[in-house]
Amino acid sequence: MKPTCIHCDREATARGLCLMHYKRARNAGTLDGYSKQAVVKPHNRLDLSGQRFGKWLVLELAGIKAYASGAKTSWKCVCDCGNTASVLGSSLVKHNGSRSCGCEAARITSERSKTHGMTATRAYRIWQAMRNRCGNSNVQNYAIYGGRGIQVCERWNSFENFISDMGEPPDECSIDRINNDGGYTPENCRWASRVEQARNTRRNRHITLNGDTRLLVEWAESLGMDQSSLRQRLDKWPLEAALTKPRKGI
């Protein structure tokens, strides 16, 4: 394959120029600006066909082009991703030369910028909301969380640690602190339904009998009565009788 002009695809004859551009440069008095070394003749070259350089597989010679610094060969290559391109042979063989069409650099950049890949999930939104209500004084519920000392443990400042400890939230469940005066920690948190969370608030009354602690509503359910009736019992009866004597008619 013959070398081509540095300005067009015609055959180069002298100083890396085709006959037309050679005459133009001579007539314009700019011929001295082109190196005499750019006179290019076909030469023995290293055949790179079939060789692999990184993700490039060299298919065939693409062409020889004359530059002011001399002739350079380019090779038709196919990347592992399927893209094809003409690549200078000097770029392929040199250390740290071309090794892909650019897809590898894009992949590395993507991997570096990628974290857990769960920013669009419900678990991530729950984690964000948890941290905001404990650490952002501008959010609506800050006063009853961060404002009263409820904090997120240091480990859970990382979403990866949070999801590793808690797992994905089951349907209809959200994060719940077992001890409402404690912070958000692996030991003090669980996934709970709205009903479970409604029972686990500071306003709910906890009653202990013989080491068994339950909410007022749970004691009432075990006796088959409503909370109002049980409250009346507790106001008038001894604790054990109020919490163990079945309701009349049962």
List the keywords.
single chain; 250 residues; alpha+beta; 3 domains; four-stranded antiparallel β-sheet; 31% helix
Overview of this structure, please?
The structure is a single chain. The protein is α+β, with helices and mostly antiparallel strands and 250 residues long. It has nine helices and eight strands. Strands 1-2-3-4 form a four-stranded antiparallel beta sheet. A hairpin with a 4-residue loop joins β3 and β4 (84-88). The N and C termini lie far apart (104 Å).
Topology (SSEs and partners):
Blueprint: H1 19-28, E1 52-53, E2 56-67, E3 70-79, E4 84-88, H2 89-93, H3 103-113, H4 122-135, H5 159-166, E5 173-177, E6 189-193, H6 194-199, E7 206-209, E8 212-215, H7 216-223, H8 227-236, H9 239-244
Antiparallel strand pairs: 1-2, 2-3, 3-4, 5-6, 7-8
Low-confidence segments, given as residue ranges, are 37-43
Write down the overall mean pLDDT.
83
Q: What is the strand content?
A: 15-25%
Shape: rod-shaped
Count of individual domains: 3
Helix content: 25-40%
Summary of the model, kept short:
The chain is an alpha+beta fold.
